[in-house]
Design brief:
The protein is mainly β. It is 5% helix and 36% strand. Strands 5, 6, 10, 11, 14, 15, 20, 21, 22, 23, 24, 29, 30 and 33 form a 14-stranded antiparallel sheet that branches. A 3-stranded antiparallel sheet has the order 1-4-7, with no helix packed on it. Strands 2-3-12 form a 3-stranded antiparallel sheet, with no helix packed on it. A hairpin with a 2-residue loop joins strand 5 and strand 6. It is globular.
Length: 613
Amino acid sequence: MRLFTTLLNNTAGNFSFQNLFTAGPNRVGGYDFASFLLGAATTGSVDYNRGDGVYSLLYGGGYVQDDWRLSPRFTLNYGIRFEHESGLHERDNHITVGFDPNATSPELQAIDAAARRNGYTGPPLKGGLMFAGVNGANDYQGNPPGVKTSPRIGATWAPDNNTVVRGGYGLFYAPWQYTQQSHGTIGFTRSTAMAQSAAESAVPLVSLDNPFPTGLIAPTGSALGILTGVGGNVDFIDQNKGAPRVHQYAVDVQRQLRGDMAVSIGYIGSTGHDIGYGGFTNSGVEINQIDPATLPKDANGHWDAAALRRSVPNPFFGVPGAGELGTQATILAGQLLRPFPQFNNVTKYQMTEGGRRQYHAMILKFDKRSTRWGGHFNYTWSHMMDNQWGQFSTYGNGLPATGTAGTGGAPQNYYNLDAEYSVSTIDVPHRIVLAPVVRIPGPEHGALSWIAGGWSASAIVEFVSGPPISAYVTNLSAANLGLFNGLQRPNLTGQPVQTTGDDLDRIATADHPSRGVDQRGRLCEPGLGAFGNSPRTDGDNRYQFRQNTDAVFTKAFTFSRTQTGEVRFEILNLTNSPKFGGANTDISSSAFGLITTSRGFSRILQLSFRYKF
């Protein structure tokens, strides 16, 4: 497989705004849009070039399979699949293939010595990017296995003529869902980060009038080695990226009933290992976050987040090769405590180790073959747990990204990703699907059949649980934690879920602008220097229980033995039921709990005619 593509699309710049630059003392008041009008961005970056490349990978697969009928009532099928998938290549080796946390060089040692003459007292500077085909590095990304072996087995047993029992297991390797961004092209592309002060404690150093006073930094290829990107943000593909794998297993019992009816009950399970943390989003792991375990704590176990956000003399100021960090006289104190203080953010993409998901479901089915009437009934009772903090739900919400963590969310502490394991953002405990089909009686011959005959009606009715709610502290996370990335979660107060009434009682309207998901009594802000104790998602507090009905009415015509026609009238969302998006679940926001967006569509009518000959 080969693809020529442009990876980056941020050549116009990307800037974020918070309320803190326009807030009063003690962080009271302020408004994001007011900060925007002043040009006081909290963070910002712009790409120097578009990042064209020719990318390829090799994929091949094969399988062997056999069915063994041990008796007229028992059949065993088994097989094994073999796959090979290489890591991603770039035609001209214009990619990085990892990050060496212990790398050093005379040039980096020279920056270290100059910074120490300016007052730097931290550990020796180390770490840098690894380039494809340079100094013995691979020319591909990740660490894929040579052969992926996937066994499969299934069995069918019929204890009598009307009953069948089925079961099976299979191991599946999930292909990576590549996006158009973040493929480890630092050096061949270059993003210049805006050097800004702490929004909660200082005036802006720069504004939108001139966000990059020293200009944009041009790409240097691999010529600078481990100095590539020093002073700015860098990202890379995890050199230990493995192959996501999913174990799937199921068993069910089906019973044939009288009247062309059948009923079945079954169990389906799925266990995912090393599946990544973003779901279908591009989520990165920030390895340059300050490790809170290294910080001194007070009697309550809190660290001094305000001290980490305080401006201090910059030991990198004026040091050749220090990039953006060398252009300003002051720096946030916490920058010097980061694992790699010569960089801003160091983001690892496509990390698989530790990503996991567990799914259990019981499924009840009823089927009736259509004569005059028929249809299908399905009820699924399920539970899903995972630590995919980058995942989001269409009818709910996920966690917002911080820093340069990609398009997905961010965990609270990058040093404890196991703490993100909770009810999945896409967990749906209950799902009911009804699909009836009715052939409406009518004359089959004569003139009247053209009007009253040949009619049928069908529908699909669905009832679905809402996804769990996630709560976080967005605008204040940087100030409250001071760790340079990480999304602070609230504390649980021990109070029960407060929201009462039906789903529409939670929706903000012009007449009731403050209605929403009322959880202020259940959650509270953890404050400075502490992580919140609430889970990533709240399975006891969910969004709207949705229902949708689609109906179809058809009229068949027979013109001759070889010519027929059909008029089809479709009504999508028959009851015109509204469906809503996620609430504002930032507890530091005045709009916390408000649901102001809709999803899906209102009632749609469609009329069509089909002629067959």
